[in-house]
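User: Hey, quick favor. My workstation is busy. Could you predict this chain's structure for me?
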Amino acid sequence: MVGNSSRMLSLLSLLQTRRDWPGPLLADRLGVTARTVRRDVDRLRELGYSVVATRGPEGGYRLAPGADLPPLLFDDEQAVAIAVALQGVTASGVDLDEAASRALATVRQVMPSRLRHRVDGIRFTAP
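Assistant: No problem, here it is.
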């Protein structure tokens, strides 16, 4: 079961990186059959992710925007980039300080400590 969960997270991560993914390419990237990809896509749908499938030679899978924001999966670099961007909101002059502060707290809460320490080492100074 651990392999299935890990593979589904990998599938979700791949679907988040580009607009359209042909089924055979996803299967190849994940090291599984196209049938396994179809089953994993069905499981993602059961979890509330909106995955659109198109048939035919130009077909494939796409993570569609949904009514609710589903849980997202970020790699280490993406998580650090988000945290740094949220820290920089105050310096940007955009009136989102409180919302950015709450979002940063949420992101930091789920970050591994190695990434939190990396983010904590970055400071912004007023121009």
